C-alpha cells in the first residue's frame, strides 16, 4: 500500500516455518459473544471474563481449514469482543473503525454496539472516510501487488495468487471495502496473530482475530456502510 493507498491485502502472520513468507513479514513489507456480559461488562470479574473469552476464542474445527484457539493470553482483555454502550447517529449494522483506539464497532441500535479489538494501519498508511462492503470472501486467494513484489522479491512466487488457507494473509474471512463503485484495496480481514491486536502494523487494512472476524462477517451483508474515523 504505497502513497497512502493499500497496495496489498497482504497481512502478516508470525510463526511461519523457515523459508515461507509469514503474515508478519507481509505486514512489515507492505504493511456466545461477550455481549452476554452486559454493556461494558462493568461488573464482570476477571476470572469470568477470561473464561468467557476462552470459549469465544476457542478452536473452530468445522471450518474448511480448521482454526486453532487464539492465545488470549497475548491479547489485552480490553480488546475482547463485548457489547458496549456506544452512541452513534449511524444506522444499525453500520461498521465503525476507530483506529486511534484499535476498535471496530458494529452498531446495534438503542445506544449499543458490538466492539471488537483490532490491528490497524501503521504510521503513514492510516486513512479515514466512508466506504462500504463491496464484496465478501471466505478463505480468499491473496495476490501480492507489483509494488510489494518490488520491495519483497520473495513474494513473486505468489504473483498468480496464494490459495486460501491458514497461511494466507487474508485468513478465513475478508470484507473488501469500496468507494464510488471502485475497490479501495483496503480490507477488514481475519488475523491469526493475537499479538497484533491493539497495534498499528498494516498498510491500511484492519484485522480482527479470526473468531471475531467470522462473527462480524456473518452479520454483515454486501453494501454495509463502513465509517473509518480519523486517527
Automatic annotation (TrEMBL):
Residues 93-229 form the L,D-TPase catalytic domain. The lineage of its organism: Bacteria, Pseudomonadati, Pseudomonadota, Alphaproteobacteria, Hyphomicrobiales. It comes from Methylobacterium goesingense. Belongs to the YkuD family. The keyword Oxidoreductase does not apply. Pathway: Cell wall biogenesis; peptidoglycan biosynthesis. NCBIfam families: TAT_signal_seq. The keyword Transferase applies. It comes from the Bacteria. Keywords: Cell shape, Cell wall biogenesis/degradation, Glycosyltransferase, Hydrolase, Lipoprotein, Peptidoglycan synthesis, Transferase. This is Lipoprotein-anchoring transpeptidase ErfK/SrfK.
Amino acid at each position: 500500500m504505497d502513497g497512502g493507498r493499500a497496495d496489498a491485502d497482504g497481512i502478516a502472520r508470525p510463526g511461519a516455518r523457515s523459508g515461507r513468507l509469514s503474515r508478519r513479514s507481509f505486514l512489515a513489507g507492505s504493511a456466545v459473544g461477550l455481549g452476554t456480559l452486559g454493556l461494558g461488562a462493568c461488573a464482570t470479574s476477571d476470572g469470568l471474563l477470561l473464561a468467557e473469552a476462552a470459549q469465544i476464542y476457542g478452536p473452530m474445527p468445522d471450518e474448511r481449514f480448521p482454526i486453532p484457539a487464539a492465545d488470549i493470553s497475548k491479547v489485552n482483555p480490553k480488546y475482547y469482543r463485548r457489547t458496549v454502550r456506544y452512541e452513534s447517529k449511524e444506522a444499525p449494522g453500520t461498521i465503525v473503525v476507530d483506529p486511534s483506539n484499535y476498535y471496530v464497532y458494529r452498531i446495534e441500535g438503542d445506544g449499543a454496539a458490538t466492539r471488537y479489538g483490532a490491528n490497524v494501519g501503521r504510521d503513514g498508511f492510516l486513512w479515514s472516510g466512508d466506504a462500504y462492503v463491496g464484496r465478501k470472501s471466505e478463505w480468499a486467494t491473496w495476490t501480492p501487488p507489483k509494488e510489494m513484489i518490488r520491495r519483497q522479491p520473495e513474494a513473486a512466487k505468489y504473483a498468480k495468487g496464494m490459495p486460501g488457507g491458514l497461511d494466507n494473509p487474508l485468513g478465513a474471512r475478508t470484507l473488501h471495502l469500496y468507494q464510488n463503485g471502485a475497490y479501495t484495496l483496503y480490507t477488514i480481514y481475519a488475523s491469526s496473530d493475537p499479538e497484533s491486536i491493539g497495534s498499528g502494523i498494516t498498510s491500511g487494512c484492519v484485522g480482527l482475530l479470526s473468531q471475531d472476524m467470522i462473527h462480524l462477517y456473518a452479520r454483515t451483508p454486501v453494501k454495509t456502510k463502513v465509517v473509518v474515523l480519523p486517527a
